[in-house]
Each structure stands twice: as C-alpha cells, then as structure tokens.
Amino acid sequence: MKKLxxxxxxxxLCTGLVLPAAAAEPVFSDVPAxxxxxxxxxxxxxxxxxxxxxxxxxxxxxxxxxxxxCAMLTRLxxxxxxxxxxxxxxxxxxxxxAEAARQAGLLEGTAALSxxxxxxxxxxxxxxxxxxxxxxxxxxxxxxxxxxxLPSDAELEAARADIADFDTVPASYTHAVTAMYALGCLQGTxxxxxxxxxxxxxxxxxxxVLARLLATVDGSASQPEPEPDPQDELDALRQxxxxxxxxxxxxxxxxxLVLDETLCEAAQLRAQETAENxxxxxxxxxxxxxVLDEFGITRHGAAENIYASPETVDAAMDGWMDSPxxxxxxxxxxxxxxxxxxxxxxxxxxxxxxxxxxx
Length: 359
Fold this sequence. Notes:
Blueprint: H1 2-15, H2 38-46, H3 66-77, H4 79-84, H5 95-104, H6 111-114, H7 123-126, H8 132-145, H9 153-160, H10 171-182, H11 203-222, H12 230-251, E1 258-259, H13 261-276, H14 290-294, E2 302-308, H15 313-321, H16 324-331, E3 337-344, E4 351-358
Helix pairs in contact: 2-11, 3-5, 8-10, 8-11, 9-10
C-alpha cells in the first residue's frame, strides 16, 4: 500500500510537469544550430520565400543578386502582384519579380531600377550581386510602400552615431542606411558598427533583413489604434455645431457667432449640471447665468439653450430650430459669441447639450 501511495504521488507530480521539447534539428546542414541567422533563414524557408541550393544546403554566405532580392521581397510582401506578372515563353525567370517590385515602388534609388530603360531591364545588373547600399535602399522603399512611417530627423541623427563608417556612405544612400539603423532593421557587420555598404549582400543577411522588415510591418499593423482624445472629440462637436448655428443665422442675415473658449467651459459645466437637474436653474437653485459670473464672463445680454437625449449635433439643432424660443436665441442678431457644451452619462437621457450665448 505504501508503494502504491508513492507511485500515485509521483504520478500526480508528473501530471503538472511540462518537459522541454527536444531541440529541433537544423533544416540546412550548413546552417547549424546557433548560426547567427538560423532562425531567420529557417523562417523564410518555411514561408517559401527562399529555398535551399540542394543537398540540404542553404549556402548562407553566397551573394544575392538584385533579381533574387526582387523575388524575395515580392514573395513576402506582394505575392498577388507577383502572381499577376506571368513570365512569357522564353523570358527570364526573374522578370515577373522585377516588374512586380518596380510597380510596387520597392526599387527606388537602386542600381536595379537605374538599369531599367525603355521597358527593358539590364540583365547584367539584375544578375549581379546586390550591394548592401542597394539592400538598404530597397528595404526603405519597401517600408514606404507598405505605409510604414520612417524615423524622424532626430531619430536619424541619433542613428548616425551607430554607423562607424557613416562618413563614407554616399549621400544618395545616407537616408536609407540611417533609417534602417534607426528602425533596427540593419546592424553593422562588426562590433564597431561598420555598415560596409559596398560589400555584397549574402543569403544569410537577406533572410535576416526580410525577417526584420516583416516584424516592422507586422508590428505596425498590430499596434492598436490610439484611443480617441475626448477633448478632440468635444472640439469637433463644438465646431460642427458652430457651423450649423452660423448656417442658420446666415439665412436670416444675422452676423456669424464666434466660438468663445471660456464660454465653452461655462457651457460644459452647465451640460454636466443639466444631467443632474434638467433646468435653466442650477443645482444650487441659482440662475443659469450665474455660471457666467463664475467664469468672469462680461456680457450685454445672454441666453441659454439646453436639450437632452439627441445623439448628434444635427438632431439637437433640428430640435432647437423647431422650438420658437430656442430658435430665437440661435438667430438673435444682438448676440456675438457662443459657448457649446456636451455631456454624456449612462444615466437619464444620456446626451446633454447646452448653448450659451452672450451679446
């Protein structure tokens, strides 16, 4: 019985124990576990963006041509556009990718695009290794085409300090190189941060930058939309209502009202108060116009419109314009300024609108 108890205890302990999985075998024999680009290479291979060279080898140090990088970029970011570019009989395999990349704007500023004249690509350029300068240029163009915001001038300035050989970067490439450094899409080829833009891009580097580009694009897409600023929304409502008011006044020849900021603050307080006590009398029993004194607003005459329940500016304005007393306030040519308040609450009529006018 004691032995059975021990076994049951061991079984119970093992039930909640998760053992680590055995490390996955490398996909390519020449990209061993721990290789600096292993993860990116295997990810791009799994996505069908790159392929091995046969014999379970990837040849990570082999240079990448401009044609090959066009194929990689379009497979990853523009597969539909690539599919639409059908290679004709006897045409080079890379022409559809080059054309899809050109039309998507991925080659701006590169030697590859410079080789395209009169609808024809220079195959000697397209089939030559792509420099790291052109790699940076194509990366920047790809992010731009994907709608990704590039770094600010301040961020670019800060990134330059990380590029050991920045002074040797040609002027036509400085923006692309620093932008990719600033976004973390490019790093140096050594601990000093040397970019080495004249060197050729190799297959390992290509997979790495593709993975970083994808992470940048996906990261931007996955960012939640910022919560709308309540003040911005209130300002927009006020502007919309001001326009409606002045449209109505223009119909009868009354001068346009100006939106007064302090008067809006007073109207906003009144909107909150009407949710508590829907009346032209304030919750403390005083007249609605005492709010003007509270905010130090001088005037020669004043008027107030209040309305509960309409969800939109148009609904509130339509209701006021259908009411003789409220309509008179809106169209009064002796009034010169308006303050607008809007307050929402889960209780009562939910939506509370206030217009305060002064002459």
